[in-house]
Amino acid sequence: MRNILNILPFRFPGPTVTMRRKYNKETYCISHLYYGKEDEYMCDAIEDCIRDTNHNGEFDGAETKVYGETAIPCGRYYVTFCKTSLAIGKKAKHGCIPYVHRVPSFTSIRIHPGETEKNSEGCIILGYNKAPGSVADSEEACLKFYNKLHYRPFWLVIIDDV
Question: Is residue 151 a contact partner of residue 81, using CB atoms and an 8 Å limit?
Fold first, then answer.
C-alpha cells in the first residue's frame, strides 16, 4: 500500500500488531488488537466510525473524511514511540506513547487511553469493550500494550472485518 514510509525497507524487522475492526456503529467502531504471528489477543480499541466504506485505504468516490469523526483507513502503518504531554506520559516509560506515521488525510495519530470515541479525534483508544460504545480499564490496557511492545517501533495492520 502507498501509506508505508518510503524511507524504510518494506520488510522492516519489527513486530506486527493487527487491529481487526469488528463493530462499526453510527458514531464509533470497536476493534480487537492482536500481537504477532500467533495472533495473541492484547485488548480492544474504540475509534470514530469507518467512512472508508470500500475498505481500500483511501477516501474516494462519495467517501469523505470528517475531522474528529473518522476512523483511520485500512492499511499497514509504521508506529514509533514519541514523547507526549498527555497524562499517560507521566506513567509511560520516558513519557512516550505510540505515534502512527503516514496516515492519509490525518495528522498526529496516537494510541492512548480514553473511554469513548469522543476522546479520540482520529486516535486509537485502547481498553476492554465491556459496554456498548465505550472501553474500560483504558490506562491499564495502554501501559500493558506499551510494555508488550517494549517501547520500540512496530507495524500496525488495520483490517475491516465489519
Answer: yes
The CA distance from 81 to 98, in Å, is 4
What's the domain count of the chain?
1
pLDDT of residue 10: 54
pLDDT, tens digit (0-9, with 9 covering 90-100), for 87-121 = 998 999 999 999 999 998 888 999 999 999 999 98
Tell me the per-residue pLDDT of 17-57, one tens digit each, with 9 for 90 and over.
Answer: 999 999 999 999 999 999 987 789 999 999 999 998 888 88
Alpha-carbon distance 160 to 73, whole Å?
9
Residue 4 lies in a domain: no
pTM for the complete prediction? 0.89
Residue 116 located in a structural domain: yes
Q: Is residue 2 part of a domain?
A: no
Torsion of CA 110, 113, 116, 122, to 10 degrees: 0
69 neighbors 49 (Cβ within 8 angstroms): yes
Task: Please check whether residue 21 is in contact with residue 71, taking contact to mean a CB–CB distance below 8 angstroms.
Answer: yes
**Which residue from 44, 12, 59 is spatially nearest to 115, judged by alpha carbons?**
44
| Residue 81 within a domain | yes
Q: Which residues contact 124 (CB under 8 A, 6 or more apart)?
A: 19, 45, 47, 72, 100, 109, 110, 111, 112
The residue range of the domain holding 94 is 16-160
